[in-house]
Design brief:
- It is a single chain.
- By secondary structure, the protein is mainly beta.
- The chain has helices at about 5-15, 195-200, and strands spanning about 30-35, 35-40, 50-55, 55-60, 65-75, 80-85, 95-100, 110-115, 120-125, 130-135, 145-155, 155-160, 165-170, 175-180, 205-210, 215-220, 225-230, 235-245, 250, 260, 270-275, 280-285, 295-300, 305-315, 320, 330-335, 340-345.
- The longest helix has 15 residues, at about 5-15.
- It is globular and about 55 Å long.
- This is TolB-like 6-bladed beta-propeller domain-containing protein.
- It holds the Pfam family TolB_like.
- It comes from Aquiflexum gelatinilyticum.
Length: about 350
């Protein structure tokens, strides 16, 4: 065998055996085109950081001087209440606080108050057409390494953050970390980076199934997501890994942990939302120069991570949220002003 040919064979063998095997992404053969409807509530929004549909109400993270969240009735298009009073007192929150659905709850949401490493829940009811809320503050503070977490049972949370593994599981009553699970996507290829930097590079959404203890975790700056399935006791049964490509970044550690994305980096899961049957991912696949922070393409997966269809809408979006029965999506676009859209899925 000639030396050049031998060298080529060796390189192919080495390349084939190193690093994580990437999932091959194929566009779904089932593609749907949908049109958007601009909603009047757009005029009442300054900037949306998060969306959640709860029954026929839309909750928007849009902090003002007094409250963090606004609630709109989607039928009347009226603002029916605000909650999450901004401050440092009991049942008060600071920016940024993320909102989450609670598995098995129709009128209750959880708030991850990240600045104080605390968690609280709000229950909603209507009295004479106005919204009333009741706050439930869980005692204690959670591990400061958590960036995001969701409640999977009465005494368990799972989250992502500055941990040696991709996921951490904690007990609520004493805030004890019970275990670290999973691996960062492509961690063998990214072996030169510390785990804190990887945690920053793979930040994204973390969402719980409406009725089961299933969780999906996504990466915003690369196309990777994981589906975790827990049993009724909060024990992890299965992790389904869907890893397509790593982020392209430079890392720094020290006083500040950073993961600075390079110009050639392609974003992945811009926004994620879930229903009983499906996981909806607003998919980018573009660099920042190509306006990679917005997209009109939504990939729909089942809870086994299998792509079911692709939805193309006639406007780019930054955020999405799906109704519990998969009848419609709400989308958000910041194009210099705030736009709230409805996308009919029927």
């Amino acid at each position: 065998m000639k030396p050049k040919l031998l060298l080529l064979v060796i390189l192919l063998i080495i390349g084939g055996c190193s690093g994580e095997k990437r999932n091959q992404f194929n566009e779904s053969q089932k593609s749907e085109k949908r049109e958007i409807e601009l909603l009047p509530i757009s005029d009442e929004i300054t900037r949306a950081f998060d969306l959640l549909i709860l029954e026929n109400n839309l909750i928007i993270s849009d902090p003002d001087q007094e409250f963090h969240f606004k609630i709109f009735d989607l039928e009347s298009q009226n603002l029916i209440g605000k909650f999450g009073k901004i401050g440092d007192g009991p049942c008060e929150v600071q920016f940024p606080s993320s909102i989450q659905r609670l598995s098995g709850e129709k009128n209750k949401v959880g708030i991850n108050n990240r600045n104080s490493f605390s968690y609280l829940e709000f229950r909603f009811g209507k009295t004479r057409g106005s919204l009333q809320d009741s706050c439930f503050l869980l005692n204690g503070k959670f591990d400061f390494n958590y960036q995001k977490f969701v409640k999977i049972s009465q005494d368990r949370i799972v989250g992502t953050g500055l941990f040696q593994s991709r996921f951490a599981i904690s007990r609520i009553k004493d805030n004890k970390i019970l275990g670290l699970k999973g691996k960062y996507p492509f961690e063998k290829e990214l072996v030169g980076f510390q785990y804190e930097t990887l945690a920053m590079a793979f930040q994204g959404d973390l969402l719980v199934h409406p009725s089961n203890s299933w969780v999906v975790s996504t990466s915003r700056k690369s196309f990777n997501f994981d589906i975790l399935k827990f049993d009724e006791n909060g024990e992890l049964n299965q992790i389904t890994e869907k890893h397509y490509w790593p982020p392209s970044f430079e890392g720094e550690t020290g006083d500040f942990v950073q993961a600075r994305m390079k110009e050639d980096n392609k974003s992945g899961c811009l926004s994620t939302t879930v229903s009983e049957n499906f996981i909806y991912i607003l998919f980018s696949g573009k660099t920042a120069e190509e306006k990679g922070n917005e997209s009109n393409k939504i990939h729909v997966y089942d809870w086994d991570g299998i792509l079911q269809k692709t939805i193309d809408v006639n406007s780019p979006l930054n955020l999405i949220s799906v109704s519990e029965n998969d009848e419609f999506l709400i989308g958000y676009l910041d194009d210099g002003k705030s736009n709230i859209f409805k996308i009919d899925l029927n």
